Amino acid sequence: MQDRIEAGFARFGRGVVRNRWAAAASTLLLAASLIAQLPPRIETAPENFLLDDDPARIAYLDFQEVFGRQDMIIVAIRPPDVFDLGFLEKLRNLHEEIEDEVSHVDEVQSLINARSTRGEQDELIVEDLLEEVPESPEALAILRERVLANPFYRNTLVSEDARFTALMVTLDLYADDVAADDDLGGFDIEPDPAAAETTGQAPPDERLSGAEVGGAADEIRAILARHQAPDFEVFLAGSPVLNQAVVRSMQRDLARFVVTMIVAIAILLAFLFRRASGVGLPLLAVMLSLASTLGAMSATDTPISPPSQILPTFLLAVGIGTAIHVLKIFYAAYDDGESVEEAVAQAMAHSGLAIVMTGATTSAGLLSFSVAGLAPMEDLGTFAPLGVVLAQINCLILLPALLAILPLRRRVSQSVAAGRLQSAIVRVGAYSARNPVAMVIVTGAIVVASLPGITRLTFTNDIMAWLPAGSPLHHATEVIDEELRGSITLEVVIDSGRENGVKDPAFLARLDELRTRAAEIRHGDYLYVGRSISIADVVKEIHQALNENRPEFYAVPEDERLVAQEILLFENTGADDLEDVVDTAFRKTRFTLKVPYVDPLLYDDFIEEVEAMFREALPEAAHIHTTGMIGMLSQTIARVIEGMIRSYALALAIITPLMILLLANLRTGFASMVPNLSPILLTLGVMGWMGVSIDMFTMMIGGVAIGLVVDDTIHFMHGFQRYYAKTGDAHLAVRRTLETTGQALLFTTITLTLGFSVFLLSEMENLFYFGAFTALAIASAFILDILVSPALMVLATRRDQHR
User: Fold this and answer.
1) Going along 214-300, which residue ranges are E strands?
2) For the chain, which end, N or C, has fewer CB atoms within 10 Å of the first or last residue's CB respectively?
3) Tell me, what CATH number does 319's domain have?
4) Helix (H) or strand (E) holding 78
5) Which region, left, alpha or beta, applies to residue 233 given φ > 0 means left and ψ of -120 to 50 means alpha?
6) Is residue 73 part of a domain?
7) 105 closest CA partner among 171, 167, 178
């Protein structure tokens, strides 16, 4: 059967050469149709990490539909004195410039327009805090006392010691948000798509993109640069700023990775083949594959996300590895005097089946991400295998066609250095074949030593840690966490179970009690509730204002009718603050907990405690759930853990039968998995001993590596089976396999190792670790392939030798 398959690949190669122009045109036309769709967009919003039908994502988007955007851009300012007239004028200028100049701004909150609720006789007045600018030291002193006495302002717009103040910038939810012109006080209106078409505005179901959010952050940053001064120190943070920082880092890294990889590949190919065609043609084939894959992503509106930024470098490395196996045999035959057609036929007969099988196993390793439960991982599990297939099409069709079209020169011999490398590989393999038991024992000892390290692995999803230590965003977030008691929020959504249920005084009183209980939650020194906000705070504020502003009336009224009347009076003032904390039916409300930013894994116990506390305090509520950025990040790490287990299991379930099928022998098929699994276990063990955590990037190491390390094993096993069937001598089969394939195995390993080593240049720490440990897995796999695979094949065929 193997002879027939190889003969079929030889006929295929001859067919490509004889129809070279049609073959080249068809592959180039396919590439052009996909490349025309470029470029794809980049997206890093945490809600897009989860699948469309993920309950956590649905809950988060539903929350935004009811209450608006939850993620705010925070501008913290440290002046000499917050309550200085000159500073307040600067603050007003900054506030107005952000409102006027920044795209997609829904609202800017600061001391300038902070809600000030007071009563005059029987009238309720809701106005901006600085509606009238203080003009005397006495007025400024009164303002200071008033601000610091109001719990609504503390740790939100001003720090407890009044050393810091902040502007909270909320962006629109939709690209063309009509909320600002809504005269119905926040009540939802179903948009008319037809009207949107006639006005040229996008319908409101088109949410603000990551690029638009990043553009707004850039505009804020430019405004802050104009105001930054020794007496006006500013700090910019918030999840939109974090997302933008990750996008910018990705953009810089992608360009750096691709350029570095292309240069490294060109040098490697020049050393190996010593001819222009050996450098230019493989690069053309794989770069077309890469551009076509990115075009397919763009055509399907699939964004590039943090995990999928590995795709360009990965496809370049994998594609070049495939091309090396084709060209190594082709040039050897061509330089020996064979025609182009016969040289292509020999290359296809020798490597065609192995190339197709390596493509299948590499794709299988990548397809395992399709069950990861995370949208970026599943996108990678779709488009990375597509890229592998496109690379194989170009290497098996376009590359031979171009070899037949272009004039080629013959070379008499390979370089001395390349010859010595090949001889060294053959000697190592022969030594392994002579000492099979010792090689297997050593491998087993290495695997056993790695197991304790695997048990030490931990998980994380700290996006902030992706950025370089000491970055401005790190510093700004730390300052805001310290001075304003938190830079991120957890949202608790409570469904009272009935219309106007939120107006129930007992319900409101328990919400107010929960504010006190939440303030007592502490998880070490790193996690605490710095501030909580709910509709109970607004109701207490209204009630106090309507009772001569007396402090003892800062409480929830006991009469439900009185609550309803006071809320109605508040709404009649034109204030729209209630729409931020309650739905239009007064059935659902939000309770916001402001906390410091820490590794999202550390929020799990905190979230469980908060949910249990709310369910205990509000047993009559129809439904209580948490959401917000903390909830999203916490759910993402849960999906990482689940996805890692599923994807690794699926990769093994697909690749093992493929190896058995290729080798047509159950015993040797299982034996071949030893050099494939050992590098993965070794790498995970080293990660555990070094304290490197598993996150959205490092979880990919196993799936990517197992799909790649199998490639070398397949080429070795395929060659061994070929020569063993002809000679019946396992030792001779090992030698001949390494003589024909060993150098290609080495150079494909070097290519892949270089490909993943370029990630060491990344600005993001997690991508650095992904590259380092994937390169370790690939390098160790090659070593095991030439040290252990010969030993395993000698042992697996020993029974045949004695017959």
Assistant:
1) 233-237
2) C
3) 1.20.1640.10
4) strand 73-78
5) beta
6) no
7) 171
